[in-house]
Amino acid sequence: MVFKLFILFAKIGAFSIGGGYAMLPFIQREVIEKNHWMTFQEFSDILAISQMTPGPIAVNSATFVGYKLAGIWGSIFATLGVVLPSFLMIILIASFFAKVYEKELVKKAFMGIRPAIVGLIAFSAYGITKTNVIDFKSSAIFILGFSSLFIKKMDPIYVIIISAIIGIIVY
């Protein structure tokens, strides 16, 4: 199982462009839909924990998924799998990126990639919202948190703490 986790997360790490949030739909598809290793609710809980802990969400998610499925070794191999391709690509790309970044073809490619990444993140956000905003209370907490972040520009840590307190009270 640990080698399967390594290969799975290495594949995700190698072919997911756009950072941690862009990887979430790929992780979701592999862990929930293809392999049926956990439910969407379990995955949503892992995402919530991954966002609250320091570090990139994709790395944290891989670590928690790996731990849930195969203990400490699962977390180590899943984390290595998701990190290693990016690490190797960064070393490779950094060696010649400055030379090719100014090329018109590369600029155009990035102009196409950026909106696709936003789409991947929006897809992930939609899936998480659909399974976690399920009743009037959770809808109210969602709206309160969303508006606190975007209208009031509140610190996300405070939004998490306040939402947890509200959750304790209303549920």
Helix count, DSSP H or I runs of 4 or more residues? 7
Global outline: globular
What proportion of the residues is helical, as a percent range?
Answer: over 70%
Low-confidence stretches: none
| Pattern of helices and strands | HHHHHHH
Oligomer: single chain
What structural class results from the helix and strand content? mainly alpha
**Terminal CA distance:** 37 Å
Strand content: under 5%
Rounded to an integer, what's the Rg over CA atoms?
Answer: 18 Å
Largest β-sheet summary: none
Total count of strands: 0
Return the average pLDDT rounded to an integer. 88
Task: Characterise the protein shown here.
GO terms for molecular function: chromate transmembrane transporter activity. One of its GO terms (cellular component) is plasma membrane. Keywords: Cell membrane, Membrane, Transmembrane, Transmembrane helix. The chain crosses the membrane at residues 6-26, 72-97, 109-128, 140-170. It is found in: Cell membrane. The chain is globular and about 55 Å long. It has a domain at 2-105. Helix content is 85%, strand content 0%. It has 7 helices and no strands. With 171 residues, the protein is mostly helical. The N and C termini lie far apart (37 Å). The longest helix has 44 residues, at 57-100. Helix 3 (40-52) packs across helix 4 (57-100) and helix 6 (136-150) packs antiparallel against helix 7 (156-170). The protein has helices at residues 2-15, 20-34, 40-52, 57-100, 104-132, 136-150, 156-170.
